[in-house]
Design brief:
Protein name: Phage tail tube protein
Number of helices: 1
Structural class: mainly beta
InterPro entries: Phage_Mu_GpM_tail_tub
Strand content: over 45%
Number of strands: 6
Radius of gyration: 15 Å
Shape: globular
Pfam families: Tail_tube
């Protein structure tokens, strides 16, 4: 039988967050089923739903929190 098949690939969003007194690395790592929005400098905006950290986020020596979220659906808004 010949046919067409698709494999679901979760959308991802790589982020860098400036660490501040009101930004908690542990809270970010505990996030589940959140909605993220991205507002690009080019005027394009995206929303990703059902997000959680792909792997635990980490903090650099420069005070930046980096990591990647993965979600269930991404769409242009």
């Amino acid at each position: 039988m010949w046919g067409f098949s698709k494999t679901f690939v979760k959308p991802t969003m790589q982020v860098t967050i400036v660490a501040d007194e009101d930004v908690d690395l542990m809270e970010i790592n505990a996030m589940t089923n959140v909605t993220l929005t991205f507002e690009g400098d080019n005027g394009l905006n995206y929303m990703m739903t059902g997000c959680e950290p792909q792997e635990p986020f980490s903090m650099t020596d420069a005070g930046e929190i980096t990591g990647t979220f993965h979600g269930m659906k991404a769409e242009k808004v």
